[in-house]
Amino acid sequence: MPVLSAGEGLHETLALLTSQLRPDANHKEDMVFLKDVFSERSLSYLMKVAEELQSGPMSSEEKELLHLLTSPHLKAVLSVHDTVAQKNFDPVLPPLPDDFEDELDEESVKIVRLVKNKEPLGATIRRDDSTGAVIVARIMKGGAADRSGLVHVGDELREVNGSSVMHKRPDEISQLLSQSQGSITLKIIPAIKEEDKLKESKVFMRALFDYTPLEDKATPCQEAGLPFKRGDILQVVSQHDQTWWQAKRVGDCNLRAGLVPSKQFQERRLAYRIKMGTLQSSKSPKKAVSGLRRSFRLSRKDRRGSSGEANVSDQNDTEFLTYEEVTRYQQKPNERPRLVVLIGSLGARINELKQKVIAENPHRYAVAVPHTTRPKKSHEKEGVEYHFVTKQAFDADAQNNKFIEYGEYKENLYGTSIEAIRSVQAKNKMCLVDVQPEALKALRTAEFKPYVIFVKPRLPESRRRRSAEEDLQEMRLSAQQIDQQYGHQVDRVLIKEDNASACAELRSILERLERETFWVPVSWVKA
């Protein structure tokens, strides 16, 4: 052993001990371990710190450090750290089956062990019609089976935790898999040709309908289904199965994908339901909210929309509301502002709301000046209140589809033209238009990239007077009808309680449109 003098510090003593360690034949491993510990640089630094704290007068900082190091709280934290660091948190798997060696002799069989929590395994199965074998039908992206990389589509499942599945029904097998907690052992015959792991897709879809897997009898596995609401953005991570896609909800913390009906499959069964008379087409003839914009202040008796009459034949065309492919879009500084379209149910008074917001900031927002065939009044100016045209000119423009909507009121024609919108945007102003919902089809183009706001008044539960209650009921029906027929095209619903709060909310929406990113149809960006 080395001779240590009283003057040598802890650091020098540690270095001397390290140099004198010589492993012998009997305790070679222990000596190597001690040498590694004593040679650790962090231990050497710690010894230096201890020496500094023990020698000579201490500064206020050193005293504070010594106080912290000797405090019960820090000692407790270090003790907990050491306790946790010494534990082994790897999953404890059960012993291998007794016949495991025999299984290895069969090259076609493999034993797969997975560790899962309460989450589903993330795989669906099917029974092969010809052989009766239980086959892995699909692997859910992000699930336990997918993360393991050990189970593949086409694998034949023989046993689950030592229990044969050869004569079990698929629902019994699914229940056995879902009830297994912690470790799960699978006996599998690998597919002859394992499919390459599909790369995660970058396809995003806006859902145009509500979907509840537990109510869908056609789904191959209700527990694996992904519920969603109309308007949710879905990332479709696999379209390998033409009937059932795998998708995730954007913004959902769940990393596992779920099953959703594919666009083709959903359209096929909607067509079948319409054929069987159990579902009404989204464009089937109904009592439409047709006519002119409410800004023209037409009464219910006098309102008559020429555009509604012209599009009667379109109502017979079936439109299946399934999915719309979307992408992220943010307005660039050199681009024309997006068109803001306001639609409203009865009682919303959206023209009043629009005019108030424009009056507060006329340099940023403007309205599309409408056309009319009525005579100009003395105080009116051409191109300010209206564009005054002859009936012949108006009819010609209408015939050439230059109006997004038009109609007649007290023997005079009124309409909003596409050029009027372009004129506002050419001045780098955001154009606000309030239209009947039927006009949305003509406006939803890559040129305008419209942001659609559905304004509806907040209605009280009931009124005492019978006439007032009838008005409220009509307003409710109006809002329900618009939501049912056109809700899938709406970007934002604005509940109008009073003018002040509604104006403030509308201003906030318009400001965010100029600086934030929004989901839009992919055709608007690629066009």
Features:
SH3 domain; PDZ_sf; coiled coil; SH3 type barrels; Membrane protein, palmitoylated 3a (MAGUK p55 subfamily member 3); six-stranded antiparallel sheet; alpha+beta; 527 residues; five-stranded parallel sheet; Pdz3 Domain; 17 helices
Can you offer a commentary on this structure?
The relative contact order is 0.08. With 527 residues, this protein is α+β, with helices and mostly antiparallel strands. The longest helix has 21 residues. 33% of the residues lie in helices and 20% in strands. Helix 1 runs antiparallel to helix 3. It has four domains: 68 residues, no CATH class; 90 residues, PDZ domain (Pdz3 Domain, Roll); 74 residues, SH3 type barrels (Roll), CATH 2.30.30; 182 residues, Rossmann fold.
